[in-house]
TrEMBL record:
Keywords: Cell membrane, G-protein coupled receptor, Membrane, Receptor, Transducer, Transmembrane, Transmembrane helix. Gene3D superfamilies: Rhodopsin 7-helix transmembrane proteins. Its main location: membrane. The chain crosses the membrane at residues 50-67, 79-104, 110-131, 143-167, 179-197. GO terms for cellular component: plasma membrane. The keyword Transmembrane applies. The lineage of its organism: Eukaryota, Metazoa, Chordata, Craniata, Vertebrata. It comes from Loxodonta africana. One of its GO terms (molecular function) is olfactory receptor activity. InterPro entries: GPCR_Rhodpsn_7TM (IPR017452), Olfact_rcpt (IPR000725). This is G-protein coupled receptors family 1 profile domain-containing protein.
Length: 221
C-alpha cells in the first residue's frame, strides 16, 4: 500500500506540468517550481527504490524460507523497514535540494527543462557544481546501489531455490508473484542508470525526457 501511495504521488509531481507544457508549447520551468519538483521526485524515487528492496526481501523469505515466513516478516519489522525508508528518503532529498538551492542559474531564473532531475539541472547552472556532483556520485550512488544489491542477492537466492527443488504448484505461484516485482525492478533500474550515471556533458534532452517519463509514468503504472 505504501508503494501504491508513493507511485501515485511520483506521477503527480511530473505529469500535470508535462501536460501544461505540452498544451502551452513551452519547454521551461521556473526556478521556484523546479526546486520542490526536484525534492519530491528524489524523495519518491528513493522511496520506490527502498520499497522494492523490502518487497524483494518478502519474496526471498516466501520462496527460500516458506516455513519461517510468519516469524520472519512480523508486522513490527515491516513497519520498521517502511519508516526507516521514509526517513532516509526524506533526508536524502533534503540534502540534494539544499545543495541545489546554493547554485545560481543565469538565465533569468527560467530553467530550459520541464523536468527537474538533478543531473541535467547541474548542466544548466553557472556556478561551480563540484560539490553537488561529488555528493551524487558518493552518497547518491550508495543510496541507489544498496537496495539494488539487496534485490540482486534476493533474486540470486530465489533463482537457486527454484532451480534446485522440483517444480511444484507452490513454487510456480511464488515465482509468478515475484515475476511482476522483477519486471518493475528491471524497468526502474534500467532507466535510472541511463539518467543518473551518464556524464552530464553527453546528455541529450530527448534521452533524459524519455527515460524520466519511463520511470515516473510507465513504471508506477
Ligand atoms: C505504510 O506502511 C505503514 C507500516 O506498515 C502503515 O502503518 C501505513 O498505513 C502505510 N501507509 C500507507 C499510506 O499505505
Amino acid at each position: 500500500s505504501n508503494l501504491s501511495f508513493v507511485d501515485l504521488f511520483f506521477s503527480s509531481t511530473t505529469v500535470p506540468k508535462m501536460l501544461a507544457n505540452h498544451i502551452l508549447r513551452s519547454q521551461t520551468i521556473s526556478f521556484p517550481r523546479c526546486l520542490p519538483q526536484m525534492y519530491f521526485l528524489s524523495e519518491f524515487a528513493n522511496m520506490d527504490n527502498f520499497l522494492l528492496a523490502v518487497m524483494a526481501y518478502d519474496c526471498f523469505v516466501a520462496v527460500c524460507y516458506p516455513l519461517h515466513y510468519t516469524t520472519k516478516t512480523i508486522p513490527q519489522l515491516c513497519a520498521l523497514l517502511v519508516i526507516g525508508s521514509w526517513v532516509i528518503a526524506i533526508l536524502n532529498a533534503l540534502l540534494h535540494a539544499l545543495l541545489i538551492a546554493q547554485l545560481s542559474f543565469c538565465a533569468d531564473n527560467i530553467i530550459p527543462l520541464f523536468f527537474c532531475v538533478v543531473t541535467p539541472l547541474l548542466g544548466v547552472s553557472c556556478s561551480d557544481t563540484h560539490l553537488n556532483e561529488m555528493m551524487i556520485f558518493t552518497e547518491g550512488s550508495l543510496i541507489m546501489i544498496t537496495p539494488f544489491v539487496c534485490i540482486l542477492v534476493s533474486y540470486i537466492c530465489i533463482t537457486s531455490v527454484v532451480l534446485r527443488v522440483p517444480f511444484t504448484k507452490g513454487t510456480g505461484k511464488d515465482f509468478s508473484t515475484c515475476g511482476s516485482h522483477l519486471a518493475v525492478v528491471s524497468l526502474f533500474y534500467g532507466t535510472i542508470i541511463v539518467v543518473y550515471f551518464n556524464p552530464s556533458s553527453s546528455h541529450s534532452a530527448e534521452k533524459d525526457i524519455a527515460a524520466a517519463v519511463m520511470y515516473t509514468v510507465v513504471t508506477p503504472m
